[in-house]
Design a protein that fits this description.
Length: 622
């Protein structure tokens, strides 16, 4: 263990580190996972949930590529929902409430099943670098481990500092020490670092909540889940509950502002714009006399409850007093207070699209070290860093997704070409091709890549092949099959749709906004099809979406092809951007700093205008 050379060493056992380790082991690489605490592998540090708007799409993409987040989420969920069903399918996003303890436990068990993974509990304090190439790591115990590549997934632990009111103490997470040493070493190599901030709300005792006066938020009776391996077995669900702050709560919180580390300038890092603290909410939205709070169960058997929407770093006494003024929480007891945490990150413009650093070869960054926030964003980065580290060892081209191929591609491209100065969170609005990048078709888009790189198991290949065969048989039925007036007119009348007077193609009926594919199931063409092929509900719904949104999908595909053409125009590695004086000064500065490899990448850099791109094309003889 000490004398051999690992293929990949992964530093950190959070969501990014776990996905990196699992995928590398599946790709037959010898892996060492080093974490500061073996008991907190895959810990849900903040909310006990996976998925959500755009995040659910990412989990399904991770699953389609052979990752484990979707499988483990399905096996440990206590509630499931498909969000945004009132909107178009591009917005549909799966989300689940998770059993926090079982989620972490199952992750560890799944990792231990992979024989190619070794584990070591220790703090990595130094990288071993030779001629600008990483060769291993050195730990706090003075042990050196050698490797061909290293993936850093340090989360919030790099020089982490926790704030609760006027109290400050070092920590990467409540009750855990920070990671010291790596930031200063990386800076000595020429890396630029920054500080970010995130926060978490208090946890409370569910036995002291008066649920009778709260709004119940129940899950859906569905077996969709995240994983395409169809392993959901959710026979019962736990409800969440909705509460609201009020003016009395706000007044108590405002009294604590004089001791707020955020308002008194003790916190220097920038926090997440789209997940503000409760004190930030009542300051920014003074016109609102209440804010919604979700009370989320932490698991099947525990009474601990997560107070979603009440993230804070105010003194614990202020937090408690404010909570007791919320309807239903008058007698509440608090398990632990909310807190803010500051940590080091490295602006991701210092990375290649493979997530390999530009300054040190075979060194990869993934997760919050790149300025992102969220389990799902971290998981997909860990997965891609693991895949690309394996491909690099095998002397193969990296796997880099275009913006029209995956939300993962959008996320990584945003980070590399635009950078981020605040915690980056994925939204559907960030994806210009979101009608193509739906949650239902992640397997069609990405599982072929998993088969190619060797991360798809036999069961995944079998299920994927069966779905493809089913779709190939169903699509012609929709396109060419005809339905008579007697078969469909009653259903059309019930929906307020005009009746048909002659045989009509199924796709024409399905193109009507109010007509669902289930309305056609009793027609003869579907009955005949189901007798032979059965009902594959997910594939059936997929064909419905393809039919209803055919025009929009085709338009996006045309725009995606235009983008692909720009991506094919390579910029020479030695191109002197600073000498192209017709490009704006800001454009030259950004292009010189980020050194895009294609015209497509250059066009997405903040500060590079369309006219700059036109000038660049002239210089390239286009």
């Amino acid at each position: 263990m000490y004398k051999g050379t690992y293929d990949i060493i992964i530093v950190g056992g959070g969501h990014a580190g776990c996905e990196a380790a699992a995928i590398a082991a599946k790709m037959k690489k010898k892996v060492l996972l080093i974490t500061m605490n073996m008991q907190t592998i895959a810990q849900m540090s903040c909310n006990p949930a996976m998925g959500g708007i755009a995040k659910g799409q990412i989990v399904r993409e991770v699953d389609a590529l052979g990752g484990l987040s979707g499988i483990i989420s399905d096996q440990t969920m206590v509630q499931f929902k498909m969000l945004n069903k009132s909107k178009g399918p591009a917005m549909w996003s799966p989300r689940c409430q998770s059993d926090r303890m079982r989620f972490a436990e199952m992750w560890r068990m799944e990792l231990e099943k992979l024989k190619n993974i070794d584990f070591w509990q220790d703090m990595v304090v130094e990288l071993i670098v030779n001629k600008n190439k990483v060769c291993g790591v050195k730990t706090n115990m003075g042990i050196e481990f050698k490797s061909r590549s290293v993936i850093l997934t340090n989360g919030t632990f790099l020089n982490g500092k926790i704030h609760v009111g006027e109290k400050q103490f070092s920590g990467g997470r409540s009750g855990e020490r920070p990671s010291i040493g790596l930031t200063s070493q990386l800076e000595s190599f020429g890396f630029v670092s920054g500080r970010m901030k995130t926060g978490t709300p208090p946890r409370i005792d569910g036995r002291t909540i008066n649920y009778k006066v709260l709004e119940e938020d129940v899950g859906e009776n569905t077996n969709t889940g995240f994983s395409y391996l169809n392993n959901v077995n959710l026979k019962k669900q736990r409800s969440c509950y909705i509460a609201y702050t009020n003016e009395d709560v706000h007044k108590i919180l405002e009294k604590g502002f004089e001791k707020s580390p955020m308002f008194q300038g003790r916190i220097k890092g920038i926090g997440p714009r789209y997940c503000p603290s409760i004190e930030d909410k009542i300051t920014r939205f003074k016109d609102k006399n209440r804010h919604q709070i979700f009370l989320e169960p932490e698991g099947w058997d525990t009474c601990e409850v997560y107070v979603n929407g009440f993230s804070t770093s105010l003194p614990e006494s202020v937090q408690y007093e404010a909570l007791t003024k919320i309807k239903g929480l008058e007698n509440v007891k608090m398990f632990r207070p909310g807190y803010a945490i500051e940590y080091d990150y490295f602006p991701p413009t210092q990375l290649e699209h493979s997530l390999e650093t530009k300054l040190i070869k075979s060194l990869y960054f993934a997760g919050q070290i790149n300025g992102t926030t969220g389990y799902e964003e971290a998981a997909c980065q860990g997965l891609m860093a693991g895949i690309n580290a394996c491909l690099h060892i095998d002397k193969k081209e990296p796997l880099i997704f275009k913006r029209n191929e995956a939300y993962i591609g959008v996320l990584i491209d945003d980070l590399i070409t635009k950078g981020t100065e605040e915690p980056y969170r994925m939204f559907t609005s960030r994806a210009e091709f979101r009608i193509i990048l739906r949650q239902d078709n992640a397997d069609l888009r990405l599982t072929p890549f998993a088969e190619k790189i060797g991360s798809a198991c036999k069961e995944r290949k079998r299920i994927f092949k069966e779905k493809i065969n089913y779709l190939e048989k169903l699509r012609p039925i929709i396109l060419n099959g005809s339905i008579t007036p007697n078969e469909i007119n009653d259903a059309l009348s019930e929906k307020g749709e005009s009746k048909i007077s002659q045989k009509t193609k199924a796709f024409q009926l399905l193109s009507r906004p109010k007509v669902n594919i289930e309305d056609l199931f009793e027609t003869q063409i579907f009955k005949d099809f189901f007798k032979i092929n059965g009902q594959h509900i997910e594939a059936i719904k997929q064909v419905e979406i393809e039919t209803k949104y055919k025009g929009y999908i085709e338009k996006e595909q045309i725009n995606a092809e235009k983008l692909t053409r720009l991506e094919k125009i390579k910029i020479p590695e030695n191109f002197k951007f600073e000498k192209a004086t017709s490009i704006s000064s800001e454009g030259r500065q950004k292009l010189t700093e980020l050194r895009p490899k294609t015209i497509g990448q250059a066009s997405r850099i903040s500060g590079v205008s369309p006219s700059d791109i036109s000038v660049l094309l002239v210089h390239l003889g286009r």
